[in-house]
Amino acid sequence: MTLNVFTVVVLFASALSLAAEFRVGFASADITPPVGWRRAGNYTELISTGVNDPLMTKAMVVQDGGTTFAFVGNDLCSVPRDLTDLARLQASKVTGIPVGNIVITATHTHGGPEYLGPLRQFLHQRALKANNGIDPHEPIDYRRQLIERWAAVIAVAWSNRQPASLEVVIPRLEGVAFNRRYWMKDGSVGWIPRKGDTNIFRSAGPVDTDFPFLLARRAGSTEGLGSLAVFAMHTAVYGGPAFGADFPGHLQTNLTAAFGPKFVSIFGEGCAGDVNHLNPFDPDPQHWTNVSPAIGRAMAQVALTNLPYASAVKPGLFAVRSAVVMAPVTPISYKEINAAKKVMETLDQNGAAFLVVVDAWRKIFQKQFWERHDGRLPQEVQVVRFDADTALVTLPHEIFTELGIAIKAASPFRRTMVVSLANDLDFYIPTRRAFEEGNYEPTTCPLEPGCGERLVAAAVKLLQELKP
Ligand SMILES: [Zn+2]
């Protein structure tokens, strides 16, 4: 009798594992705005002059049994909640994928368009006033177009699903990323010091050299369908006046050369809030025209040379879970808001120092968050369990690297990938210590200190709940 029950259980388990397989689909679409649209990545007005490389939205849909998940990467500096909410809802209606199982992220390319936030709002309103209600830099409803393209790219990736194998490898990518905050010899914390600055004492934070690479292949074949690569470094190398996708665009080009023209390479920026490519100890000028392609090439090379060591992701345990953290927004007075509005007005008249402009930009967000969310900003944390050893965490905003490392260190999964700039805006989430140290990133953050540590705790809790 006991033997019979045992046999039945074993047979049932093997039937389940036979049925379990991944079905994976990819899709991409062009989201380059008309040339002449404002360029992002600065606190001044920049006008695009052309297209260095097309800006793309790319989706990967993964299904295993009854669970489906969609990851969307965008060649944009950031994505705002009001648009991602609508696109996720629309995509969910078409595909049946639950809204919580859809994530829309930005690569954080600074070569994308300026289409959201206090700076765009100010420049757009000023243009409307000056041109009888027409902003010559915004000839189309780009925000509506984005919602439609995101929903459509998810739907196409969903309908492209096919039996596929997934494999993952996390090699290291050394020598390209640097913590951009430094303890200076005068006791201050410096931000992106000049090359050769003799006042630099040492880096004020770590870098994370993990380079997770998740590859999907057609089932029973070596043919690559698409990939998700993650690295914790600012996508802020590109510096041309035309629209540009920066190194994720070059990663796509290099992987296309290896896997064929239909291959879709998605890049997710890791926790890179305080990390960029600039090395102040290197006298080389590090011009973007060389550095951006070199990083994309290095990423592809590291991924491809390490694929022989990749682990197969085992189907059968695929699951998605999310949580919402309510982050206290720093209080603000009307007097402060009015002063901030005045600063924005003198923006391009060299009227205000950089950190004064950043401070004003943040105060306008603070006001919006108090008005819209009554002082508590909802922040969504999503966790995907690919298998017993592999998990993906997505977080909103620009997270300090130390916080991403803390999630990985506490994660019960051997392989944990963390992607930032998910579903919401690009202000920084510093560590508590960095709030005390000050300078650029903490000046951008409308939330109370402790916001980063709370996101870490929420992510780790979900990871622990999902660990089989
Ligand atoms: Zn940034």
Task: Please outline what is shown here.
By secondary structure, the protein is of the alpha+beta class. It contains twelve helices and 20 strands. Residues 108, 234, 398, 426 line the site of zinc ion.
Distinctive features:
single chain, 468 residues, alpha+beta, 2 domains, nine-stranded mixed beta sheet, 35% helix
Description:
There is one protein chain. The protein has 468 residues and is α+β, with helices and mostly antiparallel strands. It folds into 2 domains: 21-327 and 375-466, no CATH class; 330-373. Helix content is 35%, strand content 24%. Strands 1, 2, 3, 4, 5, 10, 11, 12 and 14 form a 9-stranded mixed sheet that branches. A 4-stranded mixed sheet has the order 15-16-17-19. Strands 8-7-9 form a 3-stranded antiparallel sheet, with no helix packed on it. A hairpin with a 2-residue loop joins strand 16 (376-387) and strand 17 (390-394). Helix 2 packs parallel to helix 4, helix 5 packs across helix 6 and helix 7 (334-345) crosses helix 8. The structure holds zinc ion. Zinc ion (ZN) binds next to loops.
